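Annex B. Sample input.
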Amino acid sequence: VLHQLCSTKDLSRSQVVVVDIDEKLFEIARKVMRTWNNNEFTNPSVEIVFENGRDYLRKINKTFDVIILDVGDPLPHTRSNDIFSSTVLADIGRALRLGGVVSFHTAPEHTLDHVFVTESLHEECILRKMSHFLTDIPSFERQWMFNTLKKQSL
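Annex B, continued. Sample output.
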């Protein structure tokens, strides 16, 4: 996502924060995929934070226009369950500017029961489902559903 963002947008008036829980895996990927890299990680507009995304969202005092979650489905016995909760959804709502959006992917068969989707249907939730689309991801050998929730005033 960072590569696409940097190749399509001038970031000189923007701030991008990448939060990843696994510094070791991040560094390996950075080396292995260096041909995909156009110095995005050294761009002064990009901040890399190694921390659990749930903890990062809970403590920050800044707001964002867009939050993109690249996290696996919250299946039993996975760490994804840490981030996909109603508490984290509330933290995302606090971290987004009014009109800001959060985007995340799900396996199509898990979309309807995904906690973010079900919570966004409640009247008291500040984040409302805005859109979704299904697409094939050849490297994953399956389809994925991309979902977007938008922050609105209650």
